[in-house]
Design goal:
With 197 residues, this protein is of the alpha+beta class. Helices cover 24% and strands 29% of the residues.
C-alpha cells in the first residue's frame, strides 16, 4: 500500500490498484517504492536536483518543464512536471506531474498525467503566433540543452494556462495544486529517516 491518505478528488474513480481517472482521462497514481530513491542529489540542492532531473528526462526523450521542492503532507517533496512524446503516435504529447517524497531507503510518489487528444499542438501554435518564432524557443531553464529531449519553449510557461484551461498541461498543474492542499502521509512513513545524498 502507498502511504498517501485523503487525496482523492471529486470526479475521479478507481480504475486499477492505486490508480484513479476522471472523464477527462486525467490519471492519478499513488506508488510506493521500497528502494533507495534514484534522485541525483538531496532536496536541499535545488539547482543540482533540477539539472540532474532535466538531464534524466532529456535522455529519455522528454523534457523537464519545471521542478521545485515543496511540502506535501508536511514532508519535503520534489514537485516536477515533464512532457513526453505520445508512444506510437506521429505527434502529440503527454504531461506527467509528480510529487516525490523521498526517504533514506524508500519513496512515495503521487503522479498526475494527461495526454493531448484530437488535434495536438494548438497551444504551441497560438503562443508562437503571439510571441513570434524568434522569441518562442528558449534555452532550457535547467541547462538540459543538447541532450536529445523535447525542446524548451515559452508555451509551457504557466502564465499561458489561463488561455488554455482545458489543455492537459494546465489540467495537470491544477490537479497537482488541488492534491497538495489535502494530501496527508501515514505517520509511520513520515517518521522514516530522510533521504540524503
Amino acid at each position: 500500500m502507498h502511504p498517501f491518505r485523503h487525496f482523492l478528488l471529486a470526479g475521479f474513480n478507481q480504475v486499477a490498484a492505486d490508480t484513479w481517472a476522471n472523464d477527462e482521462r486525467i490519471v492519478i497514481q499513488a506508488v510506493f517504492f521500497n528502494l533507495v530513491p534514484d534522485l541525483p542529489t538531496s532536496l536541499t540542492d535545488l539547482s543540482g536536483l533540477r539539472k540532474g532531473m532535466a538531464k534524466m528526462a532529456s535522455t529519455q526523450g522528454g523534457a523537464l518543464i519545471e521542478a521545485d521542492v515543496t511540502p506535501v503532507g508536511g514532508q519535503p517533496a520534489l514537485r516536477q512536471v515533464i512532457k513526453v512524446k505520445l508512444p506510437n503516435q506521429p505527434n502529440g504529447q503527454a504531461f506527467l506531474g509528480s510529487y516525490i517524497v523521498p526517504k533514506a531507503a524508500c519513496s512515495a510518489v503521487l503522479r498526475v498525467q494527461a495526454a493531448e487528444s484530437g488535434t495536438s499542438g494548438q497551444r504551441e501554435a497560438m503562443v508562437m503566433s503571439q510571441v513570434g518564432p524568434m522569441n518562442y524557443f528558449r534555452p532550457h531553464p535547467y541547462g538540459a540543452d543538447g541532450e536529445g529531449g523535447l525542446p524548451s519553449h515559452v508555451a509551457d510557461d504557466p502564465a499561458y494556462d489561463p488561455q488554455f484551461p482545458q489543455h492537459p498541461l494546465t489540467r495537470v498543474r491544477q490537479v497537482m495544486a488541488q492534491l497538495a492542499q489535502q494530501v496527508e502521509l501515514h505517520p509511520d512513513f513520515a517518521a522514516l529517516p530522510p533521504f540524503a545524498r
